[in-house]
Amino acid sequence: MKRFITSLLLAFVVSSLFVVPALASKVMMYSSMQEDQLVAIKRGFEAKYPGIVMDYYFAGTGRVITKIATEHQAGQVAADVIWVGDPADYLSFKKEGILQKYSSPEAKAIDSKFIDPDGYYTGARMMNMGIGYNSALVKPEEAPQSWKDLLDLKWEGQIVMTDPSSAGTTKYFVAALLANPEYGEEYFKKLRANGCELESGTTATHNQVAASAYQVGIMLDYVSHNLMAQGSPIGFTYLKKDLISIFSPIGLVKGSPNNENGKLLYDFILSKEGQEILIANNLLSVRNDVDQKGVNVQEIAKSAMQVDLNALAANSNKILATFDNIFKK
After folding, report:
1. CA dist., res. 291 & res. 286, Å (int)
2. 69: enclosing H helix or E strand
3. What spatial distance separates the first Cα and last Cα of the chain, rounded to whole Å?
4. pLDDT at 101
5. Strands, E, within 184-281: which ranges?
6. To pair with 305 at 20 to 30 A between CA atoms, which of 49, 180, 205, 256?
7. Does residue 303 sit in helix, strand or coil?
8. Helices 88-95 and 316-327 meet at what angle, rounded to 10?
Protein backbone atom coordinates (compact mmCIF):
# COMPACT_ATOMS: atom_id res chain seq x y z
CA MET A 1 0.00 0.00 0.00
CA LYS A 2 2.82 2.38 0.93
CA ARG A 3 4.54 1.58 -2.37
CA PHE A 4 1.31 2.36 -4.23
CA ILE A 5 0.87 5.72 -2.46
CA THR A 6 4.50 6.62 -3.06
CA SER A 7 4.15 5.80 -6.76
CA LEU A 8 0.95 7.84 -6.95
CA LEU A 9 2.59 10.88 -5.35
CA LEU A 10 5.59 10.57 -7.65
CA ALA A 11 3.33 10.42 -10.68
CA PHE A 12 1.46 13.52 -9.47
CA VAL A 13 4.69 15.49 -8.97
CA VAL A 14 6.04 14.49 -12.39
CA SER A 15 2.78 15.32 -14.17
CA SER A 16 2.56 18.68 -12.41
CA LEU A 17 5.93 19.63 -13.83
CA PHE A 18 4.44 19.50 -17.31
CA VAL A 19 1.42 21.68 -16.57
CA VAL A 20 3.29 24.55 -14.91
CA PRO A 21 3.49 27.24 -17.60
CA ALA A 22 6.98 28.22 -18.69
CA LEU A 23 8.00 31.72 -17.77
CA ALA A 24 8.33 33.97 -20.83
CA SER A 25 11.72 35.55 -21.43
CA LYS A 26 12.01 39.30 -21.96
CA VAL A 27 13.62 42.00 -24.03
CA MET A 28 13.78 45.68 -23.08
CA MET A 29 14.01 48.66 -25.42
CA TYR A 30 14.59 52.31 -24.50
CA SER A 31 13.11 54.61 -27.13
CA SER A 32 12.02 58.16 -27.87
CA MET A 33 9.76 56.98 -30.69
CA GLN A 34 6.04 57.75 -30.57
CA GLU A 35 4.31 55.21 -28.36
CA ASP A 36 1.80 54.11 -31.01
CA GLN A 37 4.68 52.93 -33.18
CA LEU A 38 6.34 51.16 -30.24
CA VAL A 39 3.10 49.33 -29.47
CA ALA A 40 2.82 48.26 -33.13
CA ILE A 41 6.37 46.87 -33.07
CA LYS A 42 5.67 45.13 -29.75
CA ARG A 43 2.59 43.40 -31.15
CA GLY A 44 4.39 42.26 -34.29
CA PHE A 45 7.46 41.03 -32.39
CA GLU A 46 5.48 39.15 -29.75
CA ALA A 47 3.33 37.55 -32.45
CA LYS A 48 6.50 36.24 -34.12
CA TYR A 49 8.15 35.27 -30.82
CA PRO A 50 5.30 34.32 -28.44
CA GLY A 51 7.76 33.18 -25.79
CA ILE A 52 9.32 36.65 -25.44
CA VAL A 53 7.73 39.70 -23.83
CA MET A 54 8.90 43.02 -25.27
CA ASP A 55 9.01 45.75 -22.65
CA TYR A 56 9.92 49.35 -23.39
CA TYR A 57 10.76 52.62 -21.69
CA PHE A 58 9.31 55.53 -23.66
CA ALA A 59 10.24 59.20 -23.15
CA GLY A 60 11.69 62.19 -24.97
CA THR A 61 15.27 61.80 -26.18
CA GLY A 62 16.68 63.99 -23.40
CA ARG A 63 15.15 61.81 -20.68
CA VAL A 64 16.12 58.57 -22.41
CA ILE A 65 19.75 59.69 -22.71
CA THR A 66 19.80 60.79 -19.07
CA LYS A 67 18.51 57.37 -18.02
CA ILE A 68 21.12 55.60 -20.16
CA ALA A 69 23.94 57.78 -18.79
CA THR A 70 22.86 57.26 -15.18
CA GLU A 71 22.62 53.49 -15.55
CA HIS A 72 25.90 53.28 -17.47
CA GLN A 73 27.64 55.19 -14.69
CA ALA A 74 26.15 52.75 -12.17
CA GLY A 75 27.60 49.82 -14.12
CA GLN A 76 24.93 48.49 -16.49
CA VAL A 77 22.30 49.91 -18.83
CA ALA A 78 19.11 47.91 -18.21
CA ALA A 79 18.01 48.06 -21.87
CA ASP A 80 18.86 45.48 -24.52
CA VAL A 81 18.17 47.79 -27.48
CA ILE A 82 18.33 51.60 -27.77
CA TRP A 83 16.29 53.51 -30.36
CA VAL A 84 16.42 57.32 -30.21
CA GLY A 85 16.01 59.91 -32.94
CA ASP A 86 19.36 61.63 -33.40
CA PRO A 87 22.03 59.48 -35.08
CA ALA A 88 24.75 61.70 -33.62
CA ASP A 89 23.88 60.41 -30.14
CA TYR A 90 25.09 56.97 -31.20
CA LEU A 91 28.57 58.33 -31.75
CA SER A 92 28.59 59.25 -28.06
CA PHE A 93 27.18 55.84 -27.11
CA LYS A 94 30.03 54.21 -29.07
CA LYS A 95 32.68 56.38 -27.46
CA GLU A 96 31.37 55.63 -23.98
CA GLY A 97 31.36 51.86 -24.56
CA ILE A 98 27.59 51.48 -24.24
CA LEU A 99 27.00 49.70 -27.56
CA GLN A 100 27.91 46.21 -28.74
CA LYS A 101 29.02 45.48 -32.27
CA TYR A 102 26.39 43.55 -34.16
CA SER A 103 25.96 42.77 -37.84
CA SER A 104 22.32 41.97 -38.55
CA PRO A 105 21.55 39.58 -41.41
CA GLU A 106 18.81 42.08 -42.39
CA ALA A 107 21.40 44.78 -43.13
CA LYS A 108 21.97 43.44 -46.64
CA ALA A 109 18.76 45.22 -47.73
CA ILE A 110 19.86 48.56 -46.22
CA ASP A 111 22.11 51.17 -47.86
CA SER A 112 25.55 51.33 -46.23
CA LYS A 113 25.11 55.08 -45.61
CA PHE A 114 22.61 54.15 -42.88
CA ILE A 115 24.99 51.69 -41.19
CA ASP A 116 27.85 52.51 -38.83
CA PRO A 117 31.08 51.48 -40.61
CA ASP A 118 32.34 50.06 -37.29
CA GLY A 119 29.18 47.97 -36.87
CA TYR A 120 27.72 49.54 -33.71
CA TYR A 121 24.36 50.74 -35.03
CA THR A 122 22.04 50.59 -38.03
CA GLY A 123 19.45 53.08 -39.25
CA ALA A 124 15.98 51.67 -38.61
CA ARG A 125 13.60 54.39 -39.82
CA MET A 126 13.65 57.70 -41.66
CA MET A 127 12.05 60.91 -40.43
CA ASN A 128 11.86 64.33 -41.98
CA MET A 129 11.63 67.70 -40.29
CA GLY A 130 9.58 70.11 -42.35
CA ILE A 131 6.83 72.68 -41.83
CA GLY A 132 3.46 71.61 -40.53
CA TYR A 133 0.38 73.79 -40.49
CA ASN A 134 -3.21 73.87 -39.29
CA SER A 135 -5.18 73.10 -42.45
CA ALA A 136 -8.33 74.73 -41.06
CA LEU A 137 -6.46 78.04 -40.75
CA VAL A 138 -3.87 77.85 -43.54
CA LYS A 139 -4.39 76.75 -47.15
CA PRO A 140 -1.68 74.47 -48.61
CA GLU A 141 -0.67 77.09 -51.18
CA GLU A 142 -0.33 79.69 -48.40
CA ALA A 143 1.77 77.50 -46.07
CA PRO A 144 5.49 78.30 -45.68
CA GLN A 145 7.62 76.47 -48.23
CA SER A 146 11.05 77.10 -46.73
CA TRP A 147 12.68 77.73 -43.35
CA LYS A 148 13.14 81.38 -44.27
CA ASP A 149 9.42 81.72 -45.05
CA LEU A 150 8.85 81.38 -41.30
CA LEU A 151 10.52 84.77 -40.86
CA ASP A 152 7.68 86.48 -42.75
CA LEU A 153 5.78 88.87 -40.47
CA LYS A 154 2.47 87.23 -41.39
CA TRP A 155 3.51 84.31 -39.14
CA GLU A 156 4.46 86.52 -36.21
CA GLY A 157 3.35 84.88 -32.96
CA GLN A 158 1.94 81.89 -34.87
CA ILE A 159 4.99 79.58 -34.91
CA VAL A 160 5.85 76.74 -32.55
CA MET A 161 8.73 74.26 -32.34
CA THR A 162 9.94 71.66 -29.85
CA ASP A 163 12.63 72.49 -27.31
CA PRO A 164 15.77 70.77 -28.68
CA SER A 165 16.86 69.79 -25.18
CA SER A 166 13.87 67.44 -25.00
CA ALA A 167 13.83 66.01 -28.54
CA GLY A 168 16.77 64.59 -30.47
CA THR A 169 15.14 65.25 -33.83
CA THR A 170 14.78 68.95 -33.07
CA LYS A 171 18.35 69.08 -31.71
CA TYR A 172 19.46 67.62 -35.05
CA PHE A 173 17.46 70.29 -36.90
CA VAL A 174 18.93 73.12 -34.79
CA ALA A 175 22.47 71.77 -35.21
CA ALA A 176 22.06 71.48 -38.98
CA LEU A 177 20.90 75.08 -39.39
CA LEU A 178 23.41 76.52 -36.92
CA ALA A 179 26.27 74.88 -38.87
CA ASN A 180 24.99 76.11 -42.23
CA PRO A 181 26.32 79.58 -43.22
CA GLU A 182 23.01 80.34 -44.95
CA TYR A 183 21.28 80.22 -41.54
CA GLY A 184 23.46 80.20 -38.43
CA GLU A 185 22.65 81.98 -35.16
CA GLU A 186 21.18 84.91 -37.06
CA TYR A 187 18.36 82.75 -38.39
CA PHE A 188 17.29 81.63 -34.91
CA LYS A 189 17.48 85.18 -33.59
CA LYS A 190 15.10 86.27 -36.35
CA LEU A 191 12.86 83.27 -35.72
CA ARG A 192 12.66 84.15 -32.04
CA ALA A 193 11.99 87.80 -32.89
CA ASN A 194 9.07 86.64 -35.05
CA GLY A 195 7.45 85.13 -31.96
CA CYS A 196 8.36 81.46 -32.30
CA GLU A 197 7.42 79.63 -29.10
CA LEU A 198 8.75 76.38 -27.60
CA GLU A 199 6.94 73.24 -26.47
CA SER A 200 8.55 70.70 -24.15
CA GLY A 201 7.93 67.66 -26.35
CA THR A 202 7.37 66.59 -29.95
CA THR A 203 3.82 65.38 -29.34
CA ALA A 204 2.87 68.62 -27.60
CA THR A 205 4.16 70.72 -30.52
CA HIS A 206 2.03 68.85 -33.03
CA ASN A 207 -1.03 68.82 -30.79
CA GLN A 208 -0.81 72.59 -30.32
CA VAL A 209 -0.92 73.15 -34.08
CA ALA A 210 -3.78 70.66 -34.41
CA ALA A 211 -5.66 72.52 -31.66
CA SER A 212 -5.24 75.87 -33.52
CA ALA A 213 -3.05 77.36 -30.79
CA TYR A 214 -0.54 78.09 -33.57
CA GLN A 215 -0.94 78.21 -37.32
CA VAL A 216 2.41 76.68 -38.26
CA GLY A 217 5.17 74.65 -36.67
CA ILE A 218 8.56 73.03 -37.23
CA MET A 219 7.30 69.48 -37.26
CA LEU A 220 7.98 65.83 -38.14
CA ASP A 221 6.37 64.14 -41.11
CA TYR A 222 5.28 60.92 -39.44
CA VAL A 223 3.78 62.58 -36.34
CA SER A 224 1.89 64.97 -38.61
CA HIS A 225 0.64 62.08 -40.75
CA ASN A 226 -0.47 60.17 -37.66
CA LEU A 227 -2.63 63.15 -36.66
CA MET A 228 -4.00 63.47 -40.19
CA ALA A 229 -5.01 59.80 -40.10
CA GLN A 230 -6.88 60.51 -36.86
CA GLY A 231 -8.80 63.36 -38.52
CA SER A 232 -6.83 66.32 -37.09
CA PRO A 233 -6.63 69.48 -39.27
CA ILE A 234 -2.92 69.13 -40.06
CA GLY A 235 -0.97 69.61 -43.27
CA PHE A 236 2.72 68.98 -43.84
CA THR A 237 5.21 70.41 -46.36
CA TYR A 238 8.30 68.52 -47.50
CA LEU A 239 10.71 71.35 -48.27
CA LYS A 240 12.29 71.30 -51.73
CA LYS A 241 15.51 72.73 -50.32
CA ASP A 242 17.29 72.09 -47.03
CA LEU A 243 14.80 69.50 -45.79
CA ILE A 244 16.09 67.96 -42.57
CA SER A 245 16.09 64.22 -43.17
CA ILE A 246 17.07 62.04 -40.22
CA PHE A 247 17.83 58.33 -40.13
CA SER A 248 17.11 57.01 -36.65
CA PRO A 249 19.34 54.05 -35.68
CA ILE A 250 19.02 51.14 -33.31
CA GLY A 251 21.89 49.87 -31.21
CA LEU A 252 22.46 46.72 -29.14
CA VAL A 253 23.56 47.38 -25.56
CA LYS A 254 26.89 45.83 -24.59
CA GLY A 255 26.49 43.06 -22.01
CA SER A 256 22.73 43.59 -21.90
CA PRO A 257 20.54 41.44 -19.62
CA ASN A 258 18.78 39.68 -22.51
CA ASN A 259 21.40 39.89 -25.22
CA GLU A 260 20.16 37.12 -27.52
CA ASN A 261 16.59 38.43 -27.34
CA GLY A 262 18.00 41.88 -28.07
CA LYS A 263 19.48 40.53 -31.30
CA LEU A 264 16.11 39.02 -32.24
CA LEU A 265 14.38 42.37 -31.67
CA TYR A 266 17.12 44.23 -33.57
CA ASP A 267 16.70 41.86 -36.54
CA PHE A 268 12.90 42.05 -36.40
CA ILE A 269 12.89 45.86 -36.52
CA LEU A 270 15.17 45.84 -39.57
CA SER A 271 13.34 42.98 -41.30
CA LYS A 272 10.89 43.54 -44.12
CA GLU A 273 8.10 42.52 -41.75
CA GLY A 274 9.18 45.02 -39.10
CA GLN A 275 9.72 47.83 -41.58
CA GLU A 276 6.28 47.26 -43.11
CA ILE A 277 4.81 47.72 -39.63
CA LEU A 278 6.56 51.11 -39.47
CA ILE A 279 5.32 52.07 -42.93
CA ALA A 280 1.77 51.17 -41.88
CA ASN A 281 2.28 53.64 -39.02
CA ASN A 282 3.37 56.53 -41.27
CA LEU A 283 7.14 56.09 -40.97
CA LEU A 284 9.60 55.73 -43.84
CA SER A 285 11.68 52.57 -44.19
CA VAL A 286 15.45 52.38 -44.64
CA ARG A 287 15.10 49.14 -46.64
CA ASN A 288 15.34 49.15 -50.42
CA ASP A 289 12.82 46.34 -50.97
CA VAL A 290 9.59 47.68 -49.46
CA ASP A 291 6.69 49.70 -50.84
CA GLN A 292 6.80 53.20 -49.36
CA LYS A 293 3.17 54.03 -50.16
CA GLY A 294 4.02 56.43 -52.98
CA VAL A 295 6.71 58.38 -51.09
CA ASN A 296 9.84 58.90 -53.17
CA VAL A 297 12.69 58.52 -50.70
CA GLN A 298 15.29 59.31 -53.38
CA GLU A 299 13.65 62.69 -54.08
CA ILE A 300 13.59 63.40 -50.36
CA ALA A 301 17.30 62.59 -50.19
CA LYS A 302 18.02 65.10 -52.97
CA SER A 303 16.31 67.85 -50.95
CA ALA A 304 18.02 66.98 -47.68
CA MET A 305 20.64 69.17 -46.04
CA GLN A 306 23.98 67.51 -45.39
CA VAL A 307 24.85 67.25 -41.69
CA ASP A 308 28.23 66.45 -40.10
CA LEU A 309 27.34 63.88 -37.42
CA ASN A 310 30.80 63.98 -35.83
CA ALA A 311 30.59 67.75 -35.38
CA LEU A 312 27.06 67.45 -34.00
CA ALA A 313 28.12 64.84 -31.46
CA ALA A 314 31.24 66.78 -30.43
CA ASN A 315 29.37 70.05 -30.02
CA SER A 316 26.04 68.85 -28.63
CA ASN A 317 26.22 70.86 -25.40
CA LYS A 318 27.44 73.97 -27.21
CA ILE A 319 24.59 73.70 -29.70
CA LEU A 320 21.98 73.56 -26.93
CA ALA A 321 23.68 76.41 -25.03
CA THR A 322 23.69 78.60 -28.15
CA PHE A 323 19.99 77.89 -28.75
CA ASP A 324 19.09 78.51 -25.10
CA ASN A 325 20.94 81.82 -25.14
CA ILE A 326 18.67 82.94 -27.98
CA PHE A 327 15.34 81.47 -26.89
CA LYS A 328 15.51 81.34 -23.10
CA LYS A 329 17.02 84.64 -22.01
Report:
1. 11
2. helix 61-74
3. 89
4. 97
5. 197-199, 216-220, 234-237, 244-253
6. 205
7. helix
8. 130
Nearest residue to 249 (alpha-carbon basis) of 70, 95, 81 = 81
Quote the CA–CA distance of 195 and 150 in Å, as a whole number: 10
Torsion of CA 175, 85, 59, 165, to 10 degrees: 0
- Gap between the Cα atoms of 250 and 266, Å rounded: 7
Does pTM surpass 0.70?
yes
**Which residues lie below 8 Å from residue 187, measured CB to CB, with a gap of 6+?**
147, 148, 151, 177
d(CA 311, CA 169): 16
Between the alpha carbon of residue 258 and those of residues 25, 29, 78, 198, 204, the distances in Å are 8, 11, 9, 38, 33
Is residue 291 within 8 Å of residue 279, measured between CB atoms?
yes
Torsion (CA) 89, 92, 97, 103 in degrees, nearest 10: 50
Question: Do 84 and 172 form a contact (C-beta atoms < 8 A)?
Answer: no
Rounded CA separation 188/327 (Å): 8
pLDDT in tens, 35-79: 999 999 999 999 999 999 999 999 988 899 999 999 999 999 999
**Residue type for position 173:** F
Instruction: Say how far apart CA 110 and CA 274 lie, in whole Å.
Output: 13
The CA distance from 242 to 146, in Å, is 8
pLDDT digits (tens, 9 = 90+) for 112-145: 888 999 999 999 998 899 999 999 999 999 999 9
Helix (H) or strand (E) run with residue 133 in it: strand 122-134
- DSSP-derived letter for residue 24 is P
Q: Strands 25-31 and 81-83: what pairing?
A: parallel
How far is the C-alpha of 115 from the C-alpha of 227, rounded, in Å? 30
What backbone torsions phi and psi does residue 123 show, to the nearest 5 degrees?
-60, 135
